[in-house]
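Two proteins, back to back. First:
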Amino acid sequence: MAKASVVVFGTGEQADVAHFYLRHDSPYEVAAFTVDAKYLQASSFNRLPVVPFEEIAQQFPPAANAMFVAIGYKGVNALRTEKYLAAKAMAYKLISYVSSKATVWPGFYVGENCFILEDNTIQPFVTIGNNVTLWSGNHIGHHSTIGDHCFVTSHVVISGGVNIGEACFIGVNATIRDHVKLGKACVIGAGSLILQDVADFSVYSQAGAQLSRVPSFRLKKL
């Protein structure tokens, strides 16, 4: 059975990764890549054509091709949101990818243009909105909701009953306690522990490890 055709927006690392997963673990075949004309630097990427976004509907029409917007969290997810909305306005169907190696349960709902990688454990009664990225190895607790346009990196623990507002970014190894509510466009830095509700546009950061003045070759006990 022939795979459905999809155009990937982007030619960066995110698009490279998306192309790999779609090629090896999805019912879709990437037909082309697209970027805004002013950012077009080469005519091909991964041996496929790169077409200016302004011309994509003429060369790869939405009646025959879906689209996937493969952009990271730049501008607290603003750029990915902008291009997702632009693709929808052109009448493209926005596909989602859920890894066959992710753990999901009956009744799981996921929106458009989501990218859910391997080893995500998504418990029952979780709702994930549109244009959400879950990188690998996260725990999403039961009855939690992740709003549109969020980006969750890796090894994040989102406990049960958590409500995450739209356009949030959550860094690696962050932990969010059960029944906490995050406002919109929050940035939760790597390693942060969130124990109470968070207002819109809040930024939480955890201090990094300190460099010791003692070099490793002088350590007597290790």
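And the second protein:
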Amino acid sequence: MIFDRYLAGWSLIPDGESIDTPTSRLLPVRRDGVPAMLKIVREEEEQRGGRLMAWWDGDGAAQVLVADGPAVLLERVAGARSLAALVAAGQDDEATAILCRVAARLHRPRPAPPPPLMPLDQWFAALAPAARSHGGLLAEADAAARALLATPRDVVALHGDLHHGNVLDGGSRGWLAIDPKGLLGERAFDFVNILRNPDAATALGRGRFERQAAVLADAAALDRRRLLQWTLAFAGLSAAWHLADGAWPELDSAIADLAAATLKSC
């Protein structure tokens, strides 16, 4: 069994059923009676994210307890609250504010330099070829990405996928991030996924995009126009990924349209 080596070596006791994802296998465990999560990753992206979490050292993110190659033992974050439920209860602005506070903790300077991360220009590599092939909003997104990547501001270690499902209730430890992509680039990029979540129906609700863009710009002290440009750029990148997989990027197209239209009114 893939977990056996680590169960024995780290003195862990299984505490639930294993979970399979496209990029990793997870097993709830206990270590000295304390709940934890054993994660075995399959991709370099996940290992990069694990190294970033270790660098954060539990400040705004789940604590890395021990790591060895593709295996990492994480603090198990299992509080009852969820940001998606907060949004469903009519507290969208509060959920956005919480995400901004978590981001502020993740982005603040630390004494040691971060581990090796993927620069945003590499993360966006798939967009330009897709823009040449498909044109339209993809070309507009590519133009936005090129302009932003050429003039970076506030460069920090980025979570890369910060949204309602990747920030969990850590009880007395507060809200904690999980599953970072491990990127390096402009701080504003880390807020684009908030505008696409917690689900398509919410993200595309009447007036929601414009309102949350304004809430984000205020709560995170962002240049609203650059936030919208990053949102357009990432919608194009996500669309490029979907098209490469043979899927129609319905949400990406809608978000790109909203970002482009809102930019015109700025």
